[in-house]
Design a protein that fits this description.
Blueprint lengths: L1 H23 L8 E5 L3 E3 L3 E9 L4 E7 L5 E6 L4 E5 L2 E7 L2 E8 L7 E4 L1 E5 L5 E3 L1 E2 L2 E5 L5 E9 L2 E4 L3 E6 L3 E8 L3 E6 L10 E5 L4 E9 L1 E5 L3 E3 L3 E9 L4 E7 L5 E5 L6 E4 L2 E7 L4 E8 L7 E10 L5 E12 L2 E5 L3 E3 L3 E9 L4 E7 L5 E5 L6 E4 L2 E7 L4 E8 L7 E10 L5 E12 L14 H32 L1
Parallel strand pairs: 1-12, 2-13, 14-20, 22-30, 32-40
Antiparallel strand pairs: 1-3, 3-8, 4-7, 4-10, 5-8, 6-7, 9-13, 10-11, 14-16, 15-17, 17-19, 18-20, 21-23, 23-28, 24-27, 24-29, 25-28, 26-27, 29-30, 31-33, 33-38, 34-37, 34-39, 35-38, 36-37, 39-40
């Protein structure tokens, strides 16, 4: 029993070795064959067919054709052929034998030229054999071929060649360039150029082509208040556009002004003395603000802000100058020149240049009484004859208050005094103003015999006549009463 098992295993090993040898043994067969048939000549730019016959490849095969430079693969028939174009190489894959046709387009040339096709056929074991048959083709031309180059402009600028149509021979390489107008920059070319982002590039004339130069307007605008108070902080608004993928605004602050902050992140702001640089990305339309503080001035003074915009190529474009007036802190008072004794009247106050906070302190003349104000009660504080009026943001702040004049026996002139405090509690005097409180004098009787004399006399006599009537009536009543008694 043991001998039989051993013999069976040995037989299995022998069979396996024989099968492996058979499988590994080379199959002796004829090589794969492929033939090519193409026209001997075609016209410049014409389409034509190339016929391929392939056999002896085994269960599958492939023909790899290398087209000459300038030729373009178009299509293949029948549809069951697998096609893979890669550059000038086209791979045709099939099962068994194959007969197919592929279509190509000849280049457009100025002079007659002969070209060579190359190719190989691969069998199922990837063995390669050269495609035989026609290999050369002549592309002919009846004369020079020309194409039209149309130049166009989008935006403000010029091109070389200038905008319009220009004719060139086929195959020509044309140098083109773009020059922006003032306040504009070159952005890009449309398609059909070698380098769309360079202002100087080339166009290869192998067909009619249109090329457009695109220009972008670069600008910057600044918005500042027309006037601010002495020492006040205020915002400057900036809008920049057309800078490209990178931009910068460089502002030169007037002497005495101090940079405070910006709406941009700190790493996008650089200050060197009175120059502040603001850097940003992509300024199709970019806006930001920065805050500055005005200087303290003894007299109202006008200053000028200056700046410029830099585009992605670091080309500079000016921002129009803007003026701002720094107002000295001041206050004025308006009151009547005279009022009647004991009368109420209004005093008008105008304060300016105080900054974000201000206060007017009025000292009333002796005997005058504060009555009310156009300001809310919580903005008014009275201490004796001193009245304090507090307010916010006094670029130009006005209000009124009412006072009552004293009762006087004689016409008297009084003086109002006051001062303005700014946001730093610095005091500025308000010019003194005088007011006269008048007393009414008794009316005088008209001259005897003059106009109004008799009516005046009658008015004086009427009380005495009335008193006489009363006395006479009393005496008469008393006499009659005595007689009855």
């Amino acid at each position: 029993m043991r001998k039989k098992i051993v013999s069976g295993k040995f037989l299995s090993i022998i069979v396996a070795v024989v099968l492996a040898a058979v499988i590994a043994a080379p199959v002796l067969a004829s090589p794969a064959i492929a033939t090519r048939a193409l026209p001997s000549s075609v016209e410049s730019g014409a389409e034509f067919d190339v016929a391929i016959e392939a056999s002896g490849c085994g269960f599958a095969g492939q023909v790899v054709e290398t087209l000459p430079d300038g030729f373009t693969y178009i299509s293949c028939t029948p549809d069951d052929i697998g096609v893979e174009p890669v550059g000038n190489t086209v791979k045709f894959t099939f099962l068994g034998s194959a007969s197919f046709t592929y279509r190509v387009k000849a280049p457009t040339i100025a002079t007659t030229t002969t070209y060579t096709f190359h190719g190989v056929v691969k069998d199922a074991d990837l063995n390669e054999f050269a495609v035989i048959g026609d290999t050369t083709i002549t592309v002919t031309t009846l004369g020079p071929v020309t194409y039209t180059l149309t130049m166009a402009v989008n935006g403000n600028g010029s091109t070389t060649p200038p905008a319009g149509s220009h004719t060139y021979e086929a195959g020509s390489i044309v140098d083109i360039s773009a020059t922006p107008a003032s306040g504009w920059r070159f952005d890009h070319w449309s398609s059909n150029v070698a380098n769309p982002s360079s202002s100087s590039t080339t166009v290869t004339m192998n067909s009619n082509k249109t090329v457009t130069a695109y220009f972008a307007g670069v600008s910057g605008a600044r918005t500042v208040p027309a006037s601010v108070a002495s020492g006040a902080e205020f915002d400057v608004a900036i809008k920049a556009s057309g800078c490209g993928i990178w931009g910068q605004v460089i502002e030169t602050l007037p002497s005495g002004f101090t940079y405070v902050s910006s709406s941009l992140p700190a790493d996008q702001v650089e200050q060197v003395g009175h120059t502040v640089k603001f850097t940003f990305l992509d300024s199709t339309s970019f806006t930001f603000t920065y805050k500055v503080k005005a200087p303290r001035v003894a007299d109202t003074t006008t200053y000028t802000f200056q700046g410029r915009v830099l585009d992605e190529d670091r080309i500079s474009y000016p921002i129009e100058d803007d003026e701002i007036t720094v107002l000295i802190t001041s206050g004025t008072r308006t009151l009547p020149s005279s009022v009647a004794s004991g009368a109420e009247f209004n005093v008008a106050i105008k304060a300016s240049g105080c900054g974000i906070w201000g206060q007017v302190i009025e000292t009333l003349p002796s005997g005058f009484t504060y009555v009310s104000s156009s300001l809310p009660a919580d903005q008014v504080e009275q201490v004796g004859n001193t009245i304090k009026f507090t307010f916010l943001d006094s670029t130009s702040f006005t209000f009124t208050y009412k006072v009552k004049a004293p009762r006087v026996a004689d016409t008297t002139t009084y003086t109002f005094q006051g001062r303005v405090l700014d946001e730093d509690r610095i005091s500025y005097p308000i010019e003194d103003d005088e007011i006269t409180v008048t007393v009414e004098t008794p009316a005088t009787a008209p001259p005897i015999g003059g106009k109004g004399y008799f009516p005046s006399m009658l008015g004086l006599l009427i009380p005495w006549i009335a008193l006489g009537v009363v006395l006479m009536g009393s005496i008469t009543w008393f006499v009659l009463r005595r007689r009855k008694a």
